[in-house]
Every structure is written in C-alpha cells, then in structure tokens.
Amino acid sequence: MLERLTIGPASVSQLAEPLPMSLAAVGQHIAVLEAAGLVKSQKVGRVRTCTLDTTVLTQAEKWINTRRITVEQQLDRLGEYLAATKPADEA
Amino acid sequence: MPSALTHATFCVERVYDAPPARVFHAFTDPDARKRWFFRVHDWTLHAHSGGEPGVGKAESSRFSPPGAEVIITNDSLYLDVAPNERVIYAYAMTLGGAPLSSSLSTVEFQPEGKGTRLVFTEQGVYLDGNVEGRIEGTEGLMVRLGEELERG
Question: What CATH architecture does domain B6-151 belong to?
C-alpha cells in the first residue's frame, strides 16, 4: 500500500484492488498506517483518498543516517587507534 | 509530530588489519575507549564511570557539545560478552534530561585473513520530538571527530 502511495494519492478501493483483501480489511490497515503517522486520508463524498505522509519517514531516515554516520566515524577512529597501537610482532 | 517514536535498524561493517583479540580489546577496554570513543575535541566530558566488559556491567557518561550547556547522557549495560567474538549491549541517551533513544547494539568480531571483520548492528527506538536540532548537534560532533582523526 505504501509502495502504491509513493506513486501518488489513491482511493481506498484503488488501494484494495490488487490485494486479496476485503475493502473493510484494507480500511483497517489504512487506519493503522494513519495512527502511525505514515498515511493521511481525506473523505470527499463517498470516496476516501489516501496520501503518503512523508514527515515521519523523512525524520526516521535522517535519524538513522545520523546514527549510522556516528557509528561509521567511531569505527574509523577505532581503526586509527588500532594502527597507532600496532605491536611490532604483529604480522 | 512531538514525541514520535521511530524504530530503526542499521548495520555497519569494517575490516581492520589487526587480529580479533586486539580489536576486541580496543573496543571494550575502558582506557582504550577513552582514547578513541570519548575523547572528542572541544566536547566537555563531565563524568565517566564503569565500562569494564562483563555481563551486567554498566558504563555511564555525561557530556556537552562545544559551546553548549546542554547535558547529554549515555548509559549502557553489557548483556552478552563472548571474549574476542562479540558483545551485545543496551544503551539509553538523554538530552537535557529528556529521553532521546534506547538501543540494542550487537558487535561481532569475525576473523578475516590476518585481520578482523567488525559487524556493528544497532536496533533502536528514538523518542526525540526535535530530531532536527539533535541532528545538527551530531553533525557538529562528526566534524570535530574528523579533525581529531586527522590529528592522530
């Protein structure tokens, strides 16, 4: 569903179409995604249209990248330390 | 989106030209860690305690970024220690007294030729509602860490 929404907004029935699920089950999935802040939806008349809410994903990506960079740099620093303390008898 | 919880997992690998025993020692020995992990140019390390590797052993540190008063804390606890093979530890960070993240880190030391492949996997939950400010702070740290590395 999230993959489909990266292409653009879609109605609940459009999201349900390729899935072996009832419309009600798809609605429940969307409710979970909305609660997680990943999807926003708006009901106009009888049609509920869903869009991807990129705020949380972007924050998560940034955070993960920052943590990864921290670890990368720390492990580089460990490499420098290992090189500086290399014993003469180590092959 | 204040106090959003974000779960994440990432993995970093490095190959070092040193046998697993020496990489393990450098990674876990408190004195060695002070040289490559904690000593950061311009950062203030207010307090540091513990850090001996052993199941149930803890390490605590309190520090501030350059030119800032805000206190960051890091409390970690060893959950599993297999000498020269792996360590698993949990750690929590706070920023200005507010919880920031809780993580599980697994570090494996695998022999590779005469050297060691270090595989670092972190699984975490990040609680910060103000991720932007935190990221800027960490980027500052990275720049200074790079400078420190150049200095040797």
Answer: 2-Layer Sandwich (3.30)
Best of A54, A56, A61, A66 to disrupt the B interface (most B CBs within 10 Å) is A66
Query: Which residues on chain B are in Cβ contact (under 8 Å) with A63?
Result: 6, 8, 126, 128, 131, 134-135
Helix, coil or strand: residue A34: helix
Which residue stretches of chain A have pLDDT < 70?
Answer: 56-60, 63, 91
Please tell me if residue B130 touches chain A, with a CB cutoff of 8 Å. no
Cβ-based contacts of A55 with chain B (< 8 Å): 1
Rounded to an integer, the average pLDDT of B19-36 is: 90
DSSP one-letter string for B49-83: EE---STT-EEEEEEE-TT----EEEEEEEEEEET
* Interaxial angle between packed helices B131-151 and A54-84, expressed in degrees from 0 to 180 and rounded to the nearest 10: 20
In this structure, the answer to whether residues A41 and A19 fall within a common structural domain is yes
Q: Are residues A37 and A71 in the same domain?
A: no
List chain B domain ranges.
6-151
Q: Is B78 helix (H, G, I), strand (E, B) or coil?
A: strand
Answer with the residue of higher pLDDT: B81 or B37: B81
Identify whether residues A9 and A43 lie together within a single domain. Answer: yes
pLDDT value of residue B36 = 81
